[in-house]
Amino acid sequence: MITISGGITAPKGFKTAGIHCGVKDNFTTPQPDKLDLAMVLSEVPCTAAGTYTRNVVKADPVILSMQYLADGKAQGIIADSGNANACAPKGMENAIRMANAAAAATGLQPQDFAVCSTGIIGVELNIDAIEKGIPTLVSQLASDAASSDNAAHAIMTTDLKKKEIAVRTEIGGKTVTVGGIAKGSGMIHPNMGTMLCFVTTDCAIDGALLQSMLKEVVNKTFNRVTVDGDTSTNDTCIVLANGLAENPVITGPGADYDAFFEALRAVCEYEAKMIAGDGEGASHLLTCTVQGAATEEKAEFMAKAVVRSPLVKCAIYGADANWGRVLCAIGYSGAEFDPKAVEVKFRSQAGELLVCTGGQGVVFDENMATKVLSEEEVEVLVTLTEGQASCSCWGCDLTYDYVKINGDYRS
Amino acid sequence: MITISGGITAPKGFKTAGIHCGVKDNFTTPQPDKLDLAMVLSEVPCTAAGTYTRNVVKADPVILSMQYLADGKAQGIIADSGNANACAPKGMENAIRMANAAAAATGLQPQDFAVCSTGIIGVELNIDAIEKGIPTLVSQLASDAASSDNAAHAIMTTDLKKKEIAVRTEIGGKTVTVGGIAKGSGMIHPNMGTMLCFVTTDCAIDGALLQSMLKEVVNKTFNRVTVDGDTSTNDTCIVLANGLAENPVITGPGADYDAFFEALRAVCEYEAKMIAGDGEGASHLLTCTVQGAATEEKAEFMAKAVVRSPLVKCAIYGADANWGRVLCAIGYSGAEFDPKAVEVKFRSQAGELLVCTGGQGVVFDENMATKVLSEEEVEVLVTLTEGQASCSCWGCDLTYDYVKINGDYRS
């Protein structure tokens, strides 16, 4: 498996585009230079799978997409950024109008589209701007890398970095490509934060299998990311698989299944880490790995508690080797363990530092600690002595800018 | 029941003192003007009850106090601030030395004391300073209001406000007084944050009954507070009841039980709200009340999710009426409810503002919203239509100062 350029247009038979239509003009400070409408379209009908927020309060486009994709089939995605169309007047009506407009402009059926929205909650969607923009959007659909770049930008809200990747592998003697774009930032937490992720692939795979595989992959990637513990109303991860790679259709376990699983996992893990590192206001990507645990589930509980802890997050921001907060976080994670058998290290490109062994602090070089923790990517490594299972979870530090961004998001 | 002055020395037969012994000198910036050692002592043996952190990683003084108070008896409390003696070298040894020194200076047994510590984790306690300070501390024990004030200050870490109260009521024809001091600030979350609360009372009450009552009261007060979702290694709430009010011993349900319950609840609720409003960096006390719920448990789930949400907390800091984040938070709280039957109001001394009804936003006056949300105490009122149960939980906003304080707590 290799990483290649091209994003979601790297797989055969996909076109995409991203434009500014005006959704982002409804802020106090309009953003006419920001893209806010994206479409992804396959040349042929696709096997489609989706995972959605588990929030009881689901945005209407999420409910609609769940309905439209219930048959495991789709051909495209229409998405806006700037307005989540959640708890908003005319929410379902406007979500349907988005799908209808996408269908009218492409000659497809509304049910062929997933509809996604991200942005402010509770404000009526500027559906007129979207309906007006969709024909332009469709006219710009193309399969070049620049189009994927535009689409990746058009789904961003407070994201600072584009989140795009493609990987290529061989399955059944054929070249299979998987591409992805994503957006994240605030309200990121296990069970899907305000994150959108659109994955395209030319792999041929059975629909039910793709759905179950996606669920497993999302559990091991996006659901191991937390920015602030808030789970959004709009989270959605959609995979469109059009089969144009002409590999033998994957219908069950085996080498082909494993190869595609790895490619899908690689795309989703990349996007998950990008989302974590680009959390609102973040200056560090924080990874916590728990190893030597009795079960992966327990390791995940503990790792998630660490990357979620506001006190750990503040310490990472301050490059402060405050391992006591790590012990505290694993202690309230819900996992049972022997506090006297815990080792903690901090590590990054600058090196590795042992700070706690046998559940107690060890003397360490504070200058070295500052050096290790000042790197952009920092890992907390917790080692237990009870088994072989391990798990990594991802988050970011908690900074002044997080507070600034979220102290007045609406304006 | 009336509120009176005097704090923990208001009930009959209690003395207290707070001094600077040197625990806080171990910071990069020593704090010689800050009190860091407190003792509470009853003239006679007390019925004692305690609730403790549920963190798997318990500080050694917590473990020791649980042992010493297991018989439901105690006569005093010895506490330091500045060092939590958690995950620290010689943790248990030093906790025992604290109890021994307190016993030696008072002529009591070590088992007569609860031992409490709060502050930095993982650093060896300066037990020499404490042992040297205890005789001075004991020499200053007094039953005046100034001593309670000193003790209240001597258990503070990053707290800005002293948390002290006393209430007086009549039980069985006798005047019964309940006093309390507390400290809170960071790592505050249901299941006890780094909070200490010491309650004194001259009420006569059965030990097992006091323990079960305390548990219920803590569940309805401290466990409804969250500052940052972190549950500390050291949380402790201790009640000493010396019976000097000479009321008929409370041994079961009835009017006397109810009267004392209300007094204890009032003290703990006051301290809980003080802890929430004085959360690290906080500029607002945030209350969320959920009413019209089917069960109190469900209302508590929802209210807790709101006061815990970093996005809601940032919005309150920014005086931003972002009710969408309130809906989002109750949506992921774990409670099932009908999103279309939710009403949300913001209210404070400046007025009340309806922002959401039937699960959707209503047009409101942004100037009025800013006015309501700029008050120091702000309430989010969520009304459901499914029943009669309600619950309030308390928290605070998330500010630049929280990040500042916790980005470099150790120095």
Structure notes:
The structure is a homodimer of 411-residue chains. With 411 residues, chain A is of the alpha+beta class. Chain A is built from eleven helices and 15 strands. Chain A has helices at residues 60-68, 91-106, 127-139, 145-154, 207-220, 255-277, 296-308, 310-317, 323-331, 366-373, 400-407; strands at 2-4, 14-19, 37-52, 73-83, 113-120, 163-171, 174-183, 196-201, 236-241, 285-293, 343-348, 351-357, 360-361, 377-383, 389-396. In chain A, strands 1, 2, 3, 4, 5, 6, 7, 8 and 9 form a nine-stranded mixed β-sheet that branches. A six-stranded mixed β-sheet of chain A has the order 13-12-11-14-10-15. In chain A, a hairpin with a 2-residue loop joins strand 12 (351-357) and strand 13. In chain A, helix 1 packs across helix 2 (91-106), helix 2 packs parallel to helix 3 and helix 5 (207-220) packs across helix 6.
Per DSSP E runs of 2 or more residues, the count of β-strands of chain A stands at 15
Most residues in contact: chain pair: A-B, 65 and 66 residues
Tell me about the largest β-sheet of chain A: 9 strands, mixed
Share in β-strands of chain A: 25-35%
Mean pLDDT of chain A: 91
Spatial separation of the terminal alpha carbons of chain A: 44 Å
| CA-atom Rg of chain A in angstroms | 22 Å
| Number of discrete helical segments of chain A | 11
Helix content of chain A: 25-40%
List segments of chain A where confidence is low: pLDDT < 50 over at least 5 consecutive residues.
188-193
Oligomeric state of this protein: homodimer
